[in-house]
Design brief:
The chain is built from eight helices and 14 strands. By secondary structure, it is of the alpha/beta class.
Length: 317
Amino acid sequence: MDLVIDELKVFAGNAHPGLAKSVCEYLGIPLGQSEAFKFANDNTFVRILENIRQRDVFIIQPTCAPANDNLMELLIMIDACKRASAGRITAVIPYYGYGRTDKKDQPRVPITGRLVADLLTAAGADRMLTLDLHAGQIQGFFNIPVDELTATPILTDYFKSKELSDLVVVAPDVGISKRARDVAESLNAPLAIIEKRRLGNNDSAEMLNVIGEVDGKVALTFDDEILTGGTIVNAAQALVESGVREVYCCATHPVFSKTAPKLIENSQFQEVVVTDTAPVSDDNRNGKIKVLSVASLLGEAIYRIHKGQSVGAMFND
């Protein structure tokens, strides 16, 4: 397959340039030249440094921390490309920030996930490419095409290679149980669920009980993202207290807070496996955290979108 495509241009904001470079290496094309910085008044400025007239443009920018700065930078990059007469603009958002705010679950609260979708469309994005949205229905927030990839095959292939015996996949809460079931089926393992009750809006949760047979087994917890690490660390403790021999964890998005890596390092986990949909700094890496790359997954999807080929076919066995 010839991956040298003259009409295809990939640009990166400041959120995760390393991932964008890896995607371009897969595609066999150079990373597009641009600059994005802030003026002294804190206003963001973007300039595209090459001709993109009628080109198929992809902008890689996860809306991870600092979420508001990265989101605003992405919106301005889209606008800059639109005003430079790009033929089509695809916002590649490996981690879609504000995805947790996807419904009105309290009085007088926003649905920010929908607001961000409207902002991206208003800025000029023609389509979006993302991975493992917090809730699948977020796709419906957009009036433009959305391709949602999943990192599940990358994560499950890694654990298949470890050949763990007596494995049980554990959903750390009921909400993620459907995706955890898919992981369990892929690994030919049973599923267990940890029932929990979330306390307010402070990212803390009370663990209640383990539903399923876990005694004497090796447990693999699965979640879409890790923020403070409190949920998975509490889950690991609950599993050990229920008789699990070893505990592993996998998640797509490493949205680590400042305290998360230390909490994971001191936890019951043997290993916590994440992908690079958001950057994991050297300071946040320790002996228990392993990062797998989604660059080839994104690169293949970008190639297929550019060529008008099926993206869903990537996941057909």
